[in-house]
Specification:
Elements: H1 5-10, E1 16-20, E2 23-30, E3 37-41, H2 52-60, E4 64-68, H3 85-98, E5 104-110, H4 112-122, E6 127-135, H5 145-150, H6 155-162, H7 167-173, H8 181-188, H9 198-205, H10 216-225, E7 234-239, H11 247-256, E8 261-265, H12 272-276, H13 278-288
Parallel strand pairs: 3-4, 3-5, 5-6, 6-7, 7-8
Antiparallel strand pairs: 1-2, 2-4
Helix pairs in contact: 2-13, 3-4, 4-10, 6-9
């Protein structure tokens, strides 16, 4: 997809393609090749655009920043099949192998938490510092009503994929400060047609709430791998007005990683980097130094 000029100004990164197991994966690989890699993973319904300001800040400090768009999301390909959590983890693992990245630091947001911690839990010796922002990586019974509706059989997919009832509302429900018009357009750009929103709906459907959900044992295994990451330098950066990954999820991470540092923004929502801006980017960049 050709980016509009106004989007290129916000997202000035070269496009790279990789044939992941699930399909064509677009990714950012920005900064000096000799810098220690930082892997940043987005969730749903965002894309690598979410991390744009942190990418620039880290690269300016000599870090190599690798940020994939999960297959079906962002500027990646749109395969005609349902991809689950296990596929997402395998895709990122394959990308790192393709790039010959052995050791890396990690940053996660939203569904990127389950994906990133799934990868890290299998390979704890490969991972250094971990940034955790408004996400989850363990089983939970909590789900907001508005997301539960989007998981309802048939009607949920019609709302999310057909009516754009997930990516579009996120541009105002995931923030406390209104997004600038160009930023809002940037978040929505990959999802302008129903055919390009399939993975947005699939991600919602893949939330493993039911006991027999196919991704439930995978997420349970991610949770079981968390103790192996104790002792890693970790920063929990949280927007406290997140309607989804709320304070209970933050407390869940604190309970599992009591040595982690916390950086909370009482007036920020789910897209904490949008609401907190430079107030967050500075400390996050310093954390990865």
């Amino acid at each position: 997809m050709d980016l509009p000029t106004e989007l290129k100004a916000l997202y000035p990164f070269a496009a790279h393609d990789f044939s992941a197991p699930s399909g064509r994966m677009n990714y950012v690989d920005h900064g000096p090749r000799e810098g220690r890699p930082v892997l940043l993973l987005h969730g749903n319904p965002s894309w690598s655009f979410l991390w744009r300001d942190l990418i620039v800040a880290l690269a300016a400090r000599g870090r190599r920043v690798i940020v994939p768009d999960h297959v079906g999301m962002g500027l990646s390909g749109r395969p005609n099949r349902f991809l689950r959590l296990v596929d997402r983890i395998a895709d990122v693992e394959a990308l790192l192998a393709h790039l010959h990245v052995e050791k890396f630091d990690l940053g996660v947001h939203d569904w990127g938490g389950a994906i990133g911690f799934g990868l890290a839990g299998r390979n704890p010796n490969r991972v250094g510092k971990i940034l955790v922002t408004n996400t989850g990586a363990f089983l939970s019974t909590q789900i907001p009503f508005r997301i539960a509706v989007c998981r309802a059989p048939l009607i949920g997919r019609f709302i999310v994929q057909g009516l754009n009832g997930f990516a579009w509302p996120a541009t105002w429900m995931a923030v406390e400060r209104p997004l600038a018009a160009a930023v809002k357009a940037g978040f929505l750009f990959p999802y302008l047609s129903a055919s390009r929103r399939r993975a947005v709906a699939d991600f919602v459907a893949d939330i493993p709430m039911e006991p027999h959900h196919p991704s439930r044992p995978v997420l349970a295994a991610v949770e079981a791998g968390l103790p192996g990451l104790r002792g890693k330098p970790m920063l929990l950066c949280w927007g406290m007005k997140d309607f989804c990954f709320n304070q209970a999820f933050l407390e869940g991470f604190i309970a599992r990683f009591p040595e982690a540092r916390t950086l909370v923004f009482p007036s920020a929502g789910h897209y904490v980097l949008e609401d907190a801006g430079a107030e967050a980017i500075g400390p996050l960049t310093a954390f990865f130094d």
